[in-house]
Amino acid sequence: MIDTLIPAAIRASASASRASHRPAVQVQTASATRAPEAPDPSRYLMRGQRTAQSGVGLIEVLVAVLVLSIGFLGVAALQVMSLSTNNSAMARSMAVVASYSILDAMRADIVNARAGSY
């Protein structure tokens, strides 16, 4: 009867493990199975530790989000300042290019420049 409950592969591995001096594979029959017991959380925690630690992880996450959001706001303000400064510098360089082109035209036509045509 035991031979019908144990598959041949398990019997072969069990006999091979006995030959190599390893512990045999344990096979549970249908009548020997029972529900596993639930782990007791009190053995993992010290007394009173659970109530003292409740919500600390959430506070750490909220502080991290606050710090990151302030950092991102600073980066965004830096980008806005950079764009406005860049636009101002572009307008100044365009004015310099326009004034150089007017000066080059005045150098090319010195007679009209002295007459005040420009």
Characteristics:
mainly alpha; 5 helices; rod-shaped
Q: What does this protein look like?
A:
This protein has helices at about 1-5, 10-20, 50-55, 55-110, 110-115. With about 120 residues, the chain is mainly α. The termini are far apart. The mean pLDDT is about 75.
Mean pLDDT: 77
Q: Supply Rg.
A: 43 Å
Q: In DSSP terms, counting alpha (H) and pi (I) runs of 4 or more, how many helices?
A: 5
Total beta strand runs: 0
Indicate the topology.
Blueprint: H1 2-5, H2 8-19, H3 49-53, H4 56-108, H5 110-115
What's the short version?
By secondary structure, the protein is an all-alpha fold. The protein is 68% helix and 0% strand.
